[in-house]
Please model this.
Amino acid sequence: MDPRTPCLIGIAQRTIREQPGPEPLDLWEEVARAAAADARLPVERLDSIQIVYTDSWQYDSPVGRLAERLGAAPRHRAYSKVGGTAPQLLIGAAAAGIAAGEFDSALVVGAEALATRRAYRLAGEHAPWSHPADPKPPYGWERPPHPAELAHGLFLPVHTYAIMETARRAALGMSIEEEMRDRGRIMAPMTEVAAANPYAWRRVVRTSEELVAGNRFVGWPYTRNTVAVLEVDQAAAVVLASSRLADRLGVPAEGRVYLRGWAYGEDTWEVAARPALGASQAIPRIAEVAFERAGLGLGDMDAIDLYSCFAIALRQACDAIGLDPLGRRGLTVTGGLPYAGGPASDYVLHSTATMAGLLRAQSGHGLVTGVGMHMTKHTYAVWSSEPGGRLGSAAPVFVAKGVPIAGAYEGAAVVAGYTVAHGRDGGAERGILVVDLPGGSRAHAVVEDAELLADAKSRELVGQTVRLTSDGKVNVAAW
Model:
């Protein structure tokens, strides 16, 4: 084996339930030290420190503050942008740097303390955390929402993902009730996995009926119990090293896990731009390349963790790679974002750490996927207890081309996908539509009439012809 072959040798996770809990910097330090101890590596010897973007707090120098806490002087430092693919992109960069001989060890760490932020907010207090950035930097997304999306209030994932869900439902000819029952069947087994995971945020087994009934809608047709839970206090870290360093540290063979191959690609950034709202063009190609690089196939995977912020993320992945969502391997080793916890951009660090622990214990191969933004960015990573394959890089293996998006529009249009936004009181507030226009472009529209909102929830609206009026910025739909 090449002595520069990268391997994952340290893992750590932490979940804090007592409120208020520690700030992200404290959590970074705790899991960083724990992962380094697991790797038998003194923290001050870390060559690279990489941190996943935290939504909880904007520090003046995130990597610098953590390095200072650890007494480390890493020559390679990185702080990611926002998105659920960020952990794998950092891991991939760490592995590539090690394989190229640029450094011998790397820490990738992430933490959120959004539950603590909420506790302070409810108490009418500001979080008393250290080293705030001044001035506060811009939000860490790679590109902001499309102006037409912003004009129509379409920027929250609970609404964009729900629109894709209704489009897929209609394309398959499923009724509203059939989709909800099927969603419950897919996600109920995830609650069992979460209940057995000591780091899960929600450790309660739920039946399929409990998941889709008896709790309020958020972005219809999604109920609160079937969407990612963001307000958590969780942290995770992994340490990667060259095989040469792992040998020097005395890490046994069974303590090493290898990134056999991975790939990154993109669907369109705007949901409305997708040629098929309910399906991914990118995932089949990304998965194919990841498996090809790993020298393995889906059938070789002993364990799987699909990114699961919303059911459509699971369904698009299963559709694309031919995976039975009710198969023996299940869809998650953590319990997924709605139950194990969805700490903003950080979840894939948790799923990777959990997968690594599983492969250490039983050997074999595992698939971990990530999703960023509105089903835009995708990572597929194949991990194994056996070295082999070829890493690949972060260069996208596929970038989808979208259909044009119009702004203001008046006239007839056909609903391609939709959702009904609900407030915290459970009441319907407004509808948000993506509509097909004559000539092949798309537009957005809102629905304000209460009777129309009730109608939209009572039957399939996809395929309905509606009439749009506009004030030059916002389109309003009626039928």
Notes: The chain has a mean pLDDT of 97. The longest strand covers residues 411-422.
